[in-house]
Amino acid sequence: MAKQKMTVAEAIALYLKRKGVEHIYGVPGVAILPLYDAIRELTDIQSFVVRHEQTGAFMADAYSRVTNKVGVCAATSGPGGTNLITGLYGSYMDCIPMIAFTGQVASHLVGTQSFQEVAITEIAKPVCKAVYLMNDASTAVQRFHEAWETATTGKKGPVLVDLCVDVQKTEVEVDLDEFVSVPVELPEASDEDIAKTIQMLREAKKPVLISGGGVNLAMAQAELKELAETLQIPVVTSVMGIDTFPNDHPLFAGRMGTMLNTPLGNKTILESDLVINLGGRFGDRSIGNFEEFKHNTKIVHVNIDQKQIGKYLETELGVIADVKSFMVKLTNAVKQLNQEAAATALEIKPLDLTEERTRLARKTDFEDLPIKPQRALRELREFLDRDAFVSHDCGISQIWSCQLFETYEPRTYLITGGAGTMGWGLGAAMAAKLAFPNRQSVNIVGDGSLGMSLQDLATAAKFNIPVIVFVLNNSLYGLIRQQQNWWYDERRISTDLVYKNELCDNEERGIDFVKTAEGMGVRGELVTHWKDIKPALQRAVESGKPYLIELVVDPNAVCGFSFNGRLSTVDYSIN
After folding, report:
1. Which of these, 1, 90, 140, 396, could form a disulfide with 416 (CB 3.0-4.6 Å)?
2. pLDDT score for 343
3. Which residues form the Thiamine pyrophosphate enzyme central domain (predicted)?
4. What spatial distance separates the first Cα and last Cα of the chain, rounded to whole Å?
């Protein structure tokens, strides 16, 4: 393709089309209109306008998580751009590739405090892998190609591209064929790394694999399963690895953490003498007290990011490598050893954790009223397909889900692990449903979090995105209320969301979410008995429309997690 004359906005739009971008999420404004217009005129990329820019960022983030493609969002200058920051922060913490466009005032006005001008690149820099201010048309397309490559290679992450409005309109000569993605060779484990790992496995009596978010990012779920089955050792997942291993597999021990855990998961970690961390970070909520976690345990830490090795814990073997290639090499090496001679073979005994996992599981079969959140989640899991998407906001609803909700298929459990964002889940559920229209998509959300995304029920209605919003309504900021009760002698302030709504027949719950949803064009119903949950879910699915189910749940239900940041002090009897 010879060089052709086109505007910078047109070149970027065509570049996105070539890269297979299907959707752009956001809110247009004057400073970003040239790009929006070029997308409309030159591509078949669908534009989804949202009711708050942060939802656009949340949707782009989740789209990337479920598809392993690049999510794209856009906003105008000034407050439009600043409203993207929370979404960028969430994707940055979890290493999610995303391109966020912001419009900017004309290049000669940058730095003059003109209307809706803000130094968005400086604001976004701490929560982005890279930021680009496009104030020179002659280099803009080349720099955008660099931005795309930055987001999608190595340790991935969000990149913000700030486009001056005059630059977008400027005509340049460009040959898009010149901008070719060059495959980047990922670091691989050395033969010595593999040999050392095998030797540590020989010496261990209770080894365990930790599956982190890097397994999802590397699309290495099949390799994890093969490695675990080859070694016949337990798999424990971190919060970002929750959906990397089938939760009904005989080798699944559970989840680890001070809050987001299962009983057998923590027990397995605490009793282990060798931990092989595959693509995780050893984050504080996963391992709790460092000394207790480490005790007499040896650690092999595999991560593509060198900065993560030894960051939190002393590591006997740090392997800077692509986690997929590491697992393939280790699996093949073990198989080869076990084929060669009995003298070199690893001792491998069949293992099935199903009975112990079931025996230690938390209670969910409550028949109390108001509905226990644990029972609500049980009914939901029993109803949904194995490959259904469930998205989450931060709060006690998320913690209960992480403790109780089983996952079976990769990239189906959507959560912001590092940022813990309230208001994230609705946008995530919509993006997942748009990416995979034939699969169920549910936002598990508390009433507090839904208050931060409620406006975008209108987005679901406008585009007829048939997501299910599953609201656990206790009329509280429940997680903070529980901590006030535990650690502040029940001194409660600003966690009670109850008020008498005289315009709705809902006693004293405050917001009537069903009527609010209906006002936006979303069907809804109120559920007060656990026996009515599955019938309501069936009606939601059969409607083929966005649907809100508001469940009145017990405001006094207590969620069991660690009192003091130690894995060993979780009181599993609480729930």
Report:
1. 90
2. 66
3. 194-330
4. 64
Spatial CA neighbour of 238 closest among 226, 222, 224: 224
CB-CB neighbours of 271 under 10 Å: 13
- What six digits make up the tokens of 550? 């508001």
Query: Residue 218 corresponds to which tokens in the numbers above?
Result: 């590397």
Contacts (Cβ under 8 Å, ≥6 apart) of 518: 524
Q: Who contacts 162 (Cβ-Cβ below 8 Å, separation ≥6)?
A: 81, 102, 103, 104, 120, 121, 131, 132, 133, 134
CA quadruple 180, 36, 126, 117: dihedral positive or negative?
A: positive
Distance set, CA 77 to CA 16, 34, 80, 427 (Å) = 21, 13, 6, 22
Convert the pLDDT of each residue in 46-56 to its tens digit. Answer: 999 999 999 99
Q: Which has the closest alpha carbon to 134: 168, 158, 100?
A: 168
pLDDT of the residue at 507:
67
- Cα 462 to Cα 51, 452, 533, 550: the distances in Å are 11, 19, 26, 21
Three-state SS for 513-559 is HHHHHHHHCCEEEEECCHHHHHHHHHHHHHHCCCEEEEEEECCCCCC
- Nearest CA-CA partner of 426 in 398, 405, 456, 451: 456
Encoded tokens for 435: 């990416």
- Provide the residue count of the chain: 575
Token pair listed for 32: 């970003």
The residues near 180 (Cβ < 8 Å, ≥ 6 apart) are: none
* Non-local CB neighbours of 495 within 8 Å, separated by 6+ positions: 476, 477, 478, 480, 481, 484
Using CA atoms, how far residue 464 sits from 48, 163, 433, 443, in Å, is 11, 31, 11, 16
Instruction: List, for residues 267-297, the tens digit of each pLDDT value.
Output: 999 999 999 999 999 988 899 998 899 888 9
Residue 183 burial (C-beta neighbours within 10 Å; 0-12, 13-18, 19+) = exposed
- 532 class by beta-carbon count within 10 Å (0-12 exposed, 13-18 middle, 19+ buried): middle
Taking the CB of residue 46, how many other CB atoms lie within 10 A of it?
13
DSSP H helices, 354-467, are 354-360, 373-383, 396-404, 425-435, 447-450, 457-462
At residue 182 the predicted structure's pLDDT band, cuts being 50, 70 and 90, is: confident
Report the amino acid identity of residue 8: V
| Residue 443, C-beta contacts closer than 8 angstroms, at least 6 positions apart | 390, 391, 392, 393, 425, 426, 428, 429, 467, 468, 469, 470
- Three-state secondary-structure class, residue 496: strand
Helix (H, G, I), strand (E, B) or coil at 321: coil
Decide: 309 and 212 in contact? Cβ < 8 Å: no
Nearest to residue 220, comparing CAs of 413, 31, 411?
Answer: 411
User: What is the DSSP-derived secondary structure letter of residue 232?
Assistant: T
